[in-house]
Amino acid sequence: xxxxxxxxxxxxxxxxxxxxxxxxxxxxxxxxxxxxxxxxxxxxxxxxxxxxxxxxxxxxxxxxxxxxxxxxxxxxxxxxxxxxxxxxxxxxxxxxxxxxxxxxxxxxxxxxxxxxxxxxxxxxxxxxxxxxxxxxxxxxxxxxxxxxxxxxxxxxxxxxxxxxxxxxxxxxxxxxxxxxxxxxxxxxxxxxxxxxxxxxxxxxxxxxxxxxxxxxxxxxxxxxxxxxxxxxxxxxxxxxxxxxxxxxxxxxxxxxxxxxxxxxxxxxxxxxxxxxxxxxxxxxxxxxxxxxxxxxxxxxxxxxxxxxxxxxxxxxxxxxxxxxxxxxxxxxxxxxxxxxxxxxxxxxxxxxxxxxxxxxxxxxxxxxxxxxxxxxxxxxxxxxxxxxxxxxxxxxxxxxxxxxxxxxxxxxxxxxxxxxxxxxxxxxxxxxxxxxxxxxxxxxxxxxxxxxxxxxxxxxxxxxxxxxxxxxxxxxxxxxxxxxxxxxxxxxxxxxxxxxxxxxxxxxxxxxxxxxxxxxxxxxxxxxxxxxxx
Amino acid sequence: xxxxxxxxxxxxxxxxxxxxxxxxxxxxxxxxxxxxxxxxxxxxxxxxxxxxxxxxxxxxxxxxxxxxxxxxxxxxxxxxxxxxxxxxxxxxxxxxxxxxxxxxxxxxxxxxxxxxxxxxxxxxxxxxxxxxxxxxxxxxxxxxxxxxxxxxxxxxxxxxxxxxxxxxxxxxxxxxxxxxxxxxxxxxxxxxxxxxxxxxxxxxxxxxxxxxxxxxxxxxxxxxxxxxxxxxxxxxxxxxxxxxxxxxxxxxxxxxxxxxxxxxxxxxxxxxxxxxxxxxxxxxxxxxxxxxxxxxxxxxxxxxxxxxxxxxxxxxxxxxxxxxxxxxxxxxxxxxxxxxxxxxxxxxxxxxxxxxxxxxxxxxxxxxxxxxxxxxxxxxxxxxxxxxxxxxxxxxxxxxxxxxxxxxxxxxxxxxxxxxxxxxxxxxxxxxxxxxxxxxxxxxxxxxxxxxxxxxxxxxxxxxxxxxxxxxxxxxxxxxxxxxxxxxxxxxxxxxxxxxxxxxxxxxxxxxxxxxxxxxxxxxxxxxxxxxxx
Lengths: 534, 534
Description:
The first copy, chain A, is globular and about 70 Å long. Chain A is 35% helix and 19% strand. Chain A has helices at residues 33-42, 63-73, 82-87, 94-101, 118-131, 187-195, 213-218, 226-229, 232-235, 263-266, 300-312, 325-329, 357-373, 381-389, 394-403, 420-434, 466-483, 499-521; strands spanning 78-79, 111-113, 134-138, 158-162, 169-173, 178-181, 199-200, 236-243, 246-250, 275-282, 284-285, 289-297, 319-323, 347-355, 377-380, 406-416, 439-444, 451-461. Chain A has 18 helices and 18 strands. Chains A, B: FAD binds at residues 219-222, 270-276.
C-alpha cells in the first residue's frame, strides 16, 4: 500500500487488491486443515516459491499527453508511481495471478488517472482521442476474463481510468424506489449508503467486497441473491455515459417501446463503448428477516429438476444454489468446512428467503412444501448459515491453494433446462480430458424459468506449466460450450479471454453490429481496445 | 374480401381488416345507446358520409423486379390485385382511418409478397437490394404509429412483405417451457396452438385479435396481463432474423454476460434492421382459474399509490388497470356500459388473478388485504367480468364513433412514479388546450416497481379538419411528454409518427447508434425506410 495516492480503505478495512492475489496481502489466511488434507490426498502438497512483487515496466507516456491529462483532472490525480500502477495491472483470473506471480506485469498502465466527475471523464477521453491513448476503465479490478488487459500496440500509452474518486450516492427517489450511484462505489460502499436509508440493492456477486457499481453494469453482473433481487442488468433503469463523442443519457421510464432498449446495449459493453459515470438502479427495502437453509437431493439432476419446478411455478426464493455430487462431497459451498466428510453421495442445495417476516413465512412454507413433495430432504439452517458466512471466501481460498501448488480456477455458462445435462457433461468431459486427475466441481448458481447457469470450479496440480495447461483446458471447455449451443459466459463477461468464442454465440452479424456501434461511439478506438468487440 | 389470394380466416372468423376501420366491415356494430347519448350530449350527433372504398394507385413495379420477386417466392405469392394491396395499406391509427375515409390510399404497396419461410424472406430481401425496393414487413397490420407507411421516394417500388403464410408453431420445449413461433401467427392463432398443449403466452394487447407474433416482437408490445405474464420483450429468449446481409440467430441462454444483449436490439427494431422470421418465447401453463374484480378509489392518485404499493411489495396481480375520474365516469373500461351512470366521482381499478386455484386464492387474499388497508372499496366481480368481456372492443367502438362525427384516438407514455402526476397533468393540459370541449380520459395500464404507464383516450367532435386538428393536438401532447422527461411511447412503438420526438428521448448519440446499426445490417436501406431510425 502506498501513501497519499491510495484511496480511503473500504468499509471493513479490506484495502486494495494486489496483482498477486485476491484481496490485500494482509487478508491472506492459512489453508483450512480440511482443505489441506484434501489437497495432500488429491495432488500431493508442494510449496510454490513465495511470489515476489515484480517490477512494473517504466511508464512510456510522453510529456505532452501527460501534461494534457494533468490539465484535464488536476496534477494530483495523474499517478505514475510504480506501486499505484502495479495495483492497476490486470484483473483476478487465475491466469492473471499466475502471470503476476511469474513476474510478468507487462500490462501495467503507463498512468493511473482518477477523474472526480463525469466532466473529468469526458476531459480524459478528449485527451485520449487527441493523443491516441488507450483508456481502461477501472472499478473494482475484479475482472476474471482479461477485461483490464487492453491492447496497447499502436497507442501512445495505456491509461487506467481509475474511478475510485467517483463514489457518491447522487440521488434517491424513495417514491419510485430508485437510486443514482456513481460507478466507483464498491459493493459494500453502495450497500452502506443505501442501508442508511433502509434501502439496498441486494446485489451480492462473489466479488462483492471489491467490485464496483460501474463494473456491475458494464459486465451484466449477476449475484448470489439474483433469484430474489434480479440480475444487475434487470435493476438498471438509467445510465449516464461519457463517450468520445459526448454525453449519453438513457432512462426515460421503467420500460418502453421507443425502439430497441439502448440501455441493454450499454449494459455489457465492458468499457468499449463509453465510460458509465452514473447508474440509476431500482432499490428494495432492507429485509426484516433472512433465513438460509440446506436441502439434500439424491442427484444433481433431481436437484436441478426441483429448481426448475420452483422457477416455473412462481416459487423462487431469494437465494437458490445447488452443488453437484463432487462439489457437495468436498463441501465447496462451505469454504470453512472444505474436505470435512459427511456426504452420502447426495447434492446440497442452499435455499435462502429474505423479506418481511410475513413474506418469508409464506414463501418458505410454499417452497418447503414443493421441495418436500419433490423428494428433497431438509437439512436445517446449519448448512445455509455456513454458506452465507463463507459466501465471499472462495477467492481467498484460491490464494492459499496457489501457495501450496494447486491451480484453482472457475468458469461458467448457462443454457435452457433441456440442454443442461448435455452442457454439464460436455464441459466436464473437456476439462477432465485436458487435466489429468483434476477435481471438476459444479454448481447451479442462477435459475430462470427457461434455464439455468452452470458454474464450474476446477482444481489441479500446478505442474511445470500451470498457465499453458490451464489455457488449453479452458479453451477446450469453451469449445464444448459453443458445441452445446450455450453461452460463453453467464456473468463473468467477455473481456479478452472469451472474445475468440463470442462470434460463435452472437453470429458474424452480431460481431459486425458490435463493431459498428463501437466505430460510431468511439471512432478512434481509444476505449478498452481489444476488449469485447471481435 | 378477395378470392384465392386471401389467407384462411382467423380463429373466430374475424377475417381481414379494412383500411377504413378496425376489423372487417362485417364486424361493424351499432353504437351502444349509452355511448350514443353521451356523444349527443357532449358533441352533438352528426353523421359522416359513409366512407366509400377509394381506388388504390396503380402498381408502379417494373417488369424486372416483379419477375425477380416471382422467382423468389413463386408467382402465386406475388399479388398485385388492387383489393389485396388496399388491405395492406397503412395501419390502424385514427389518422390512418381518416386518410382512408377521405379516399387517400397513396401509401398502398405496389405488390404484396407472401414468403412461406425464412429462406423465402431472405430471397425477397436479396431482390429488394438488387432492385432497390422498399420492403415493409406486415404482420397483423394493427400499427397505430405509422410503422407501415414507409418512405417510397427514391425506391423502385414498395413491397408489403406479408407474413401471413408463416404461421407455424415450429417447436415446443416443455422442459424449458419455451416455444418457437413463426411471425405471421396472430394472437388468437398462437394461443390456440399453445392451448392445445396446455400452454399459453398470456400476451393480450388490445390489438390481440389481429396483431402478430412478429409484430409483438418488433414493437416491444405490452399486453393487458403484462403485470402477471410480462411484456413481450421479457418473454423472448431467442430470435431468427433475415437481414440483407444474411441470417442472424440469437438466443444462447435465458440471460448471459456475453456483451450487450443483442436480442434487445432486435426487439423494438420495427422491421428497420431485419425481418424476424422466428421468435422463441417463454410460455406458461394455462391457468386453472381467472378472477377479475373491481375496486374503487377516492381519486386517481390514491389508486396509483395503491398500484405502486402492490408493485413495490411483490404483490402484483395478473391484470392491474386504473381509470382516472373521467374515464371512470363514462365507464370506458366497460365498452358495453359506456355512458351508463353509477359513478361517485371515484376511480375504478380492475384487478385480475390467474393461476392455479391455490395461487389465485393466496394472491387474491394478500392483494385484498393490502388494497383494503390502503382504502380501496371492493366492487366484486361484476366490473371485472365486464372489463374482461369487452377487453378487445374499444377499437370497434372507435369505428362507430367515427361514423357519427366523433374523432377518437389514444396515446400512451410511461414514467417513474414520482413523475406520474406531473406527466398526467402536462399531457392532459396539452390535449385540452388544443381540442376545445374534448373528453380526455386516462388509465394506468402497466405497472412496474419503479413506475407506470399512462394511456390517454381522447374524444372530440371531428369538425371540418379532423386530421389536422388531431395531429396538432398529438404534437402538443408529445412535446409535453418530452418536457416531462417521459417516454414517447410505452407500447405503441415509434413508427413514423413518433420519430420526430425519439432523439429527445434517446439522445443524439442514441439516434446515431440506431443509424449505425441500420447502416451495418441494411446498407442499402431497403428495410422499412423512414420508420424508426431518426
